[in-house]
Write a structure and sequence with these properties.
Chain A: This is ABC transporter permease. The complex is a heterodimer. Chain A is mostly helical. Helix content of chain A is 73%, strand content 0%. Chain A is built from 14 helices and no strands. The longest helix of chain A is centred in the middle third of the chain and has 37 residues, at 103-139. Chain B has helices spanning 4-31, 36-44, 49-58, 65-77, 91-126, 131-145, 148-162, 181-218, 221-228, 233-255, 257-271, 276-285, 289-317, 319-322; strands at residues 83-84, 89-90. In chain B, α5 (91-126) runs antiparallel to α6, α8 runs antiparallel to α11 and α12 runs antiparallel to α13 (289-317). The mean pLDDT of chain B is 79. Classes of the chains: A mainly alpha, B mainly alpha. The interface between A and B is large, with 41 and 48 residues.
């Protein structure tokens, strides 16, 4: 924390240092002034990062294409438009699948399920992880011991296999899939949050807040959590990418919602014919790849922008 | 044997966690639609109430849930993991038959990923602005972003169809069953594509991690000391820095083993590799819950063994732990 505020001050030094001088007695002699606009600094840092901006533009394009593409393209992904396995050509830009359905229409519509499940599963992952990590890291002692045992338990179950079991036993609906992915992949976020809490909970400003009479919940979620957020945000971005890969894997194995088109499902249904019709599996895969790539680029960019050591440049 | 005590503690803890996995399995079986008896009755094409009651008594389904849990735990302890009605044989035999193929695939990919990944990471760390360094950055991003099953399918298109170097599926040639060395070579030939596909993601993640870690270590004080003493650069990097730079990678290998196994499910499905992962896929298609849950139990056991081995490897590599008891 100290190194972060120090370097922030160093970055914005010329503006803030004189301004803080006449403000009377500062809390402690050696402390540096608080940075004015950390969020703005972070955004500026991010905007200067070329790969990260590329990722952002790419992701925005993909999201817009899945939202408005079906309306513009106007081909039903479930209806047969041509011969089965028609190669890419002027009629069907990306060819047709084993039932003669348009691959391009499938790729455009299939992004909706994948992105929706990916985002909501990541939200569940982060929510469970942050709550468990917060309680374990804040209270320590037996609470920590019990919660970490639970985390360890979930860590020894291979994630995809466990999610497969959950989806098989309950239903293959989008909601179940999102919950199953979230329920199996929160452990890393929990450990990260716990480590951050252990680092922060004994810092001076937390002690000050405690002395001033702040209750446990206020300390946990209003005092410590904001300071622990930077690495959690990066982990959240990573979780979106992982959840999308997860959803794609489950749909590929035939565990997706059978009534909803998704990228993994197109690949899974056509994989037996891939040696005769490469386009059926190649294009939906490229869509998954580019989506996860754009999210990873954004995650890396956010990581760099939040990293005080890099900000000095 | 100074590592014996902490390892023994790990073993006891692992066994306790394993019992928890068995209990979880039992709960999941309770939640699964249809019990064993209804499956059998369904296959018999219906049965009289007396027969159903007799069957229920035979399988202990007429007892309370805690009593059933006790029976289940006892069965698992004696190696009875249930009966697969689809494959029409005990689950344990099915799993033991498929286990070696999975271990072969996972261990090969792991070794491949560890060796290639750390080598890439460490060489690129010596020239942080070099071509290799940029390659590692790009490759690790791409490796993380590509779905493993899709990479496998692309491998098939390129290296089995376009340039027919490797077989499309399976673990051995069925038409020409080889013996002795011929069989081993045949299996290795079949192993190349699945192992490279599965290993590739981890090459990506280990090269990135070992590069960062090596850069960190190389800027440490004791490395400056070693250089100041006039040690040759080669010795500084490979003797002093490497050991410490490898530690985070070893931790990562242990932590990711579960995911590696999960990746194996997809890779085995793509390449029809006759391991546990494909068995999981087959049992999902048939809603064969006893088999599916037994695979979950076995894979948890594999992850545990991997964790204990990682712990041991860590103790052997870390110079700070190596000298002392724990």
């Amino acid at each position: 924390m100290t190194s972060r505020s120090a370097s922030l001050a160093a970055a914005s030094g010329p503006e803030t240092a004189p301004a803080s001088a006449p403000q009377g007695p500062s809390p402690a002699a050696g402390t540096t002034p608080k940075p004015d606009r950390p969020l703005l600094d972070t955004c500026r840092m991010f905007a200067r990062n070329c790969p990260a901006m590329t990722g952002l533009v790419l992701l925005a394009t993909i999201v817009l294409a899945t939202l408005f593409g079906p309306g513009l393209y106007g081909v039903d992904p479930f209806s047969m438009v041509d011969m089965p396995f028609a190669p890419p050509g002027p009629d069907c830009l990306l060819g047709t699948d084993y039932l003669g359905r348009d691959i391009l229409a499938g790729v455009i519509v299939g992004g909706r399920a994948t992105l929706a499940v990916g985002a909501s599963a990541a939200a569940i992952t982060v929510l469970i992880g942050v709550v468990i990590g917060t309680f374990a890291g804040y209270f320590g002692g037996w609470v920590d011991a019990v919660l970490m045992k639970v985390t360890e338990f979930f860590q020894i179950l291979p994630t995809l296999l466990f999610a497969m079991v959950l989806v098989t036993i309950f239903s293959s609906s989008l909601v179940t899939i999102a919950i199953a992915i979230g329920a199996v992949s929160w452990t890393a976020t929990a450990r990260l949050t716990r480590a951050e809490f252990i680092r922060i909970r004994d810092l001076e400003y937390v002690k000050a807040a405690r002395t001033a009479g702040a209750r446990d919940f206020y300390l946990m979620f209003r005092v410590i959590l904001p300071a622990a957020l930077p690495p959690i945000i990066v982990a959240a971005a990573l979780a979106v990418g992982i959840s999308i890969l997860f959803e794609a894997g489950l749909s590929f194995l035939g565990l997706g919602d059978p009534n909803t088109m998704s990228w993994g499902m197109i690949i899974g249904q056509n994989r037996d014919y891939l040696l005769n019709a490469w386009w059926t599996v190649t294009f939906p895969g490229i869509a998954i790849f580019l989506t996860v790539l754009s999210i990873s680029l954004i995650g890396d960019g956010v990581n760099d922008a939040l990293n005080p050591r890099l900000r000095r440049r | 044997m100074r590592h014996a005590y902490p390892i023994a503690i790990r073993l006891v803890q692992s066994l306790a966690l394993l019992v928890c996995v068995v209990v979880l399995n039992f709960l999941l079986i309770q939640l699964a639609p249809g019990d064993t008896v209804s499956v059998i009755v369904g296959e018999m094409g219906g049965a009289s109430p007396e027969t159903i009651a007799a069957l229920k008594a035979e399988y202990g389904l007429d007892q309370s849930i805690p009593a059933q849990l006790g029976i289940y735990l006892g069965k698992v302890l004696t190696g009875d993991l249930g009966y697969s009605h689809y494959f029409n044989r005990p689950v344990l035999g099915l799993i033991l038959e498929r286990l070696p193929a999975t271990i072969l695939l996972v261990v090969t990919s792991l070794i491949l990923a560890f060796v290639v990944g750390t080598a890439l990471g460490i060489f690129s760390a010596r020239r942080p602005k070099g071509i290799l360094s940029h390659f590692v950055t790009v490759f690790s991003l791409a490796g993380f972003s590509a779905p493993v099953f899709w990479t496998g399918l692309m491998m098939l298109i390129v290296f089995a169809s376009l340039i027919p170097l490797f077989p499309v599926s399976g673990m051995a040639d069925v038409a020409r069953p080889g013996q002795g060395l011929g069989y081993v070579l045949d299996v290795l030939h079949h192993l190349v594509l699945p192992a490279v596909t599965l290993g590739m993601i981890y090459v990506a993640s280990y090269s990135r991690l070992s590069r960062t870690s090596m850069l960190d270590v190389l800027s440490a004080d004791y490395i400056r000391t070693a250089r100041a003493k006039g040690l040759p650069e080669r010795r500084v990097v490979y003797k002093h820095a490497l050991r410490n730079a490898l530690l985070p990678v070893v931790t990562m290998v242990g932590m990711e083993f579960g995911q590696l196994f999960a990746g194996a499910v997809l890779v085995e499905t793509v390449f029809n590799w006759p391991g546990l992962g494909r068995l999981a896929y087959e049992s999902i298609l048939r809603r064969d819950y006893p088999t599916l849950l037994a695979i979950l139990l076995f894979s948890a056991m594999l992850v545990m063994v991997a964790n204990i081995l990682t712990d041991l490897a860590y103790r052997l590599i870390d110079p700070r732990i190596r000298g002392r008891g724990r």
